[in-house]
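Regression test case RT-17, inverse folding.

Input:
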């Protein structure tokens, strides 16, 4: 709880006999020589100014919407300049004897004249039109009093022909040395309190609490409410249905607390004057001394000496549901805690934080948002106080040593991550976390971002909000996690479909490399992760030797369609530049090793493609075909038959030549590609720079083992594929020879020499 406030005054009013009451108030409650004021009084003044500003905005909003909902206008008719015109006109028509003589106090006399009768409707004296207009006028004045805009209320009531009301409301000004103010202020306030109590009897019985903030009560209810404020009568105020909201109740309490403090100062000053007059037995006491107003009767309201916590407890006992239930609202509890003091704020925040962190229902997101932003604000303006906030002992934090602000931010970011429409805010709130929490939280968030547009947006925000270079560390975590972990696949909004022949899990891993391809300084890490994924694919799927084999399809699509063509070269160039913008950069020798690894794998994938194409070509190209039947019989002579036979031989040779060229071209491409792998400079999948400090790391050792495993598995297969290309090509050509011999017999030797000379690279000049 809060310790009792020290409501010390700047000066003792008992020592200021010659000063006017207004000067005494300024000296006791104003600023001292150093410009300081009592802290409890400062808090009370600030709280009262705050609630008046809130109620003032409420009044202004209703005035702004005056003509949108004209069924219950806030202000009376703008042309009204006389008091109760309809009632006066009715009295003229009916004669005064039928309704009694009109008098300013007639409504009260009519109500309180016969105490034995039950309360009557306050509108029975006035015509209904005048009663409604009076109620609207007094309601507007009451709202202006609540907003602290008393001058506007006095002007409004005067403009509506009731200047006498304005005069009756200004008696609260203390007497000043220049003669302004009320010399009988205490008497005026005492009378206001008495009238307020009499009016309260009617308003409490003749009116029931309303839930509609725009409902119109009787005019006397609003007049009673104004008098409650003027006389600091909290009890009757909290029983008046005009005070329809918790904010209205708070204003009544704070306004009364301030007024009672003023009264106590003036009372002490006045009592000292009375004692001085009695001791001197003078007939001319100080001007403004009131001998019978401060009678110390028990009807005078008692304050809480600046203890706002005790003062606001009065709201809990109000018979009005709106005020009483408002005290239990968590948001209004927060307002109350700030009015009471630091300990109340700490208790409120810690309790709300515990509830928000433990809540599993997204319906509580609104309150989570409120308490998170409240703690963020406190952390920015009161960092020392914020560091004292912690979860209650009975609420576990899983051994987390983070501050309460961090815990709330983590909870709120977790909620934002579940709302795709709020993803644009995640980076901003993550930027308020510690660096370690930024790395962990934003990395976990980005793993679930799969749309290219959203990848660009979230990455750009990370570069804008986070410390320089942290975006690269986050992307390293994201891409490695997506590549290595076996996260169950579920289609995400905005995610592209998997390429044909590639499963969805592998497709997501392949697209994760895109995170590192948007900015050139990330390309060295893109090369690292690309090689990592390619090694995983090679070790997991293996390689087949059939033309329909698709085990290497994911690797080929990744290299050919998803990665930049110049990835390896640009990555090495970035390492050569090394401008210091990337934390823990990759060394140039390591980048050169990575480039060689990437080129080696890319060369093998190309060789495998050439090999598959060769198998497809040789399977669909037959080495045998029949020549056209030689003409037998007929009328041709020997010369004509010779010409026909020569034409047939040329046609056969040309067709065979075309088929042989197709096979030779496919075999040459495949064998050359496979030979490039076998004869790769420095060795296939062998690092260019062998001795590196990076080799001591666990990741480097794992990479070395994987490369050895791939090399020992795939190089024998490459040799086998090369052998198969050469063997199948030789067998196919041998079948060509057999087919030629079968069809042309002894004359096939010249044809074979002519046939092979057409596609033999060593005799290309003779090709016709």
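Golden output:
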């Amino acid at each position: 709880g809060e310790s009792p406030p020290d409501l010390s005054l700047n000066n003792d009013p008992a020592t200021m006999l010659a000063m006017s009451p207004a000067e005494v108030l300024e000296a006791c409650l104003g600023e001292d020589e150093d410009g300081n004021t009592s802290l409890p009084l400062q808090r009370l003044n600030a709280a009262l100014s705050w609630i008046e500003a809130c109620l003032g905005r409420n009044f202004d909003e209703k005035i702004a919407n005056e003509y949108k909902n004209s069924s219950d206008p806030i202000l009376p008719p703008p042309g009204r300049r006389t008091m109760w015109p309809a009632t006066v006109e009715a009295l003229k028509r009916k004669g005064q004897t039928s309704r009694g003589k009109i008098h300013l106090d007639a409504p009260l006399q009519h109500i309180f004249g016969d105490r034995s009768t039950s309360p009557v409707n306050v509108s029975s004296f006035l015509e209904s039109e005048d009663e409604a207009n009076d109620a609207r006028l007094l309601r507007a004045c009451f709202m202006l009093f609540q907003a602290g805009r008393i001058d506007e209320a006095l002007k409004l009531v005067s403009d509506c022909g009731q200047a006498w009301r304005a005069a009756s409301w200004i008696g609260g000004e203390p007497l000043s040395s220049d003669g302004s103010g009320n010399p009988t202020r205490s008497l005026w306030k005492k009378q206001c309190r008495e009238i307020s109590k009499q009016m309260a009897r009617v308003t409490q019985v003749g009116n029931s609490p309303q839930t509609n903030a725009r409902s119109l009560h009787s005019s006397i209810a609003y007049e009673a409410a104004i008098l409650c404020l003027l006389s600091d009568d909290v009890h009757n105020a909290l029983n008046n249905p005009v005070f329809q909201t918790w904010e209205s109740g708070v204003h009544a309490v704070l306004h009364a607390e301030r007024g009672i403090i003023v009264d106590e100062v003036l009372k002490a000053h006045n009592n000292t004057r009375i004692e001085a007059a009695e001791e001197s037995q003078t007939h001319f006491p100080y001007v403004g001394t009131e001998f019978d107003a401060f009678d110390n009767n028990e009807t005078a309201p008692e304050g809480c000496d600046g203890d706002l916590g005790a003062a606001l407890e009065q709201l809990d006992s109000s018979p009005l549901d709106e005020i009483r239930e408002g005290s239990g609202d968590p948001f209004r509890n927060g307002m109350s805690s700030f009015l009471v003091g630091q300990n109340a704020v700490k208790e409120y925040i810690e309790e709300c934080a515990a509830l928000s962190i433990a809540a599993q229902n997204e319906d509580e997101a609104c309150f989570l948002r409120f308490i998170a932003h409240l703690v963020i604000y406190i952390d920015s303006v009161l960092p020392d106080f914020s560091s004292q906030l912690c979860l209650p002992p009975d609420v576990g934090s899983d051994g987390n040593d983070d501050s309460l602000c961090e815990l709330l931010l983590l909870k709120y970011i977790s909620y934002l991550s579940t709302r795709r429409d709020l993803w644009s805010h995640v980076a901003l709130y993550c930027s308020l976390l510690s660096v370690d929490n930024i790395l962990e939280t934003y990395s976990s968030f980005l793993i679930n971002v799969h749309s290219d547009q959203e990848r660009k947006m979230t990455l750009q925000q990370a570069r804008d909000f986070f410390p320089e270079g942290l975006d690269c560390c986050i992307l390293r975590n994201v891409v490695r996690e997506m590549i290595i972990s076996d996260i169950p696949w579920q289609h995400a909004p905005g995610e592209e479909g998997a390429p044909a022949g590639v499963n969805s899990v592998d497709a997501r891993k392949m697209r994760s490399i895109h995170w590192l391809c948007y900015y050139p300084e990330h390309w060295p890490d893109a090369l690292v992760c690309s090689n990592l994924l390619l090694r995983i694919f090679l070790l997991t799927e293996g390689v087949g030797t059939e033309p329909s084999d698709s085990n290497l399809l994911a690797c080929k699509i990744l290299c050919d369609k998803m990665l930049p063509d110049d990835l390896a070269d640009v990555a090495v160039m970035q390492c050569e530049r090394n401008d210091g913008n990337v934390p823990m950069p990759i060394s140039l020798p390591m980048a050169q090793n990575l480039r060689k690894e990437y080129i080696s794998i890319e060369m093998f994938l190309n060789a495998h493609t050439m090999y598959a194409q060769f198998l497809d070509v040789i399977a669909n190209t037959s080495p045998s075909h029949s020549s056209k039947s030689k003409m037998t019989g007929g009328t041709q002579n020997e010369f004509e038959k010779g010409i026909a036979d020569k034409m047939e031989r040329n046609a056969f040779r040309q067709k065979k030549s075309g088929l042989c060229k197709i096979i030779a071209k496919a075999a040459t491409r495949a064998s050359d590609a496979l030979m490039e792998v076998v004869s790769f400079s420095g060795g296939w999948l062998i690092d260019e720079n062998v001795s590196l400090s990076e080799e001591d790391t666990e990741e480097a050792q794992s990479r070395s083992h994987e490369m050895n495993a791939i090399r020992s598995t795939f190089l024998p297969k490459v040799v086998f594929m090369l052998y198969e290309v050469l063997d199948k090509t030789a067998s196919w050509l041998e079948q060509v020879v057999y087919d030629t011999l079968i069809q042309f017999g002894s004359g096939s030797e010249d044809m074979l020499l002519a046939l092979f000379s057409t596609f033999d690279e060593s005799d290309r000049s003779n090709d016709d």
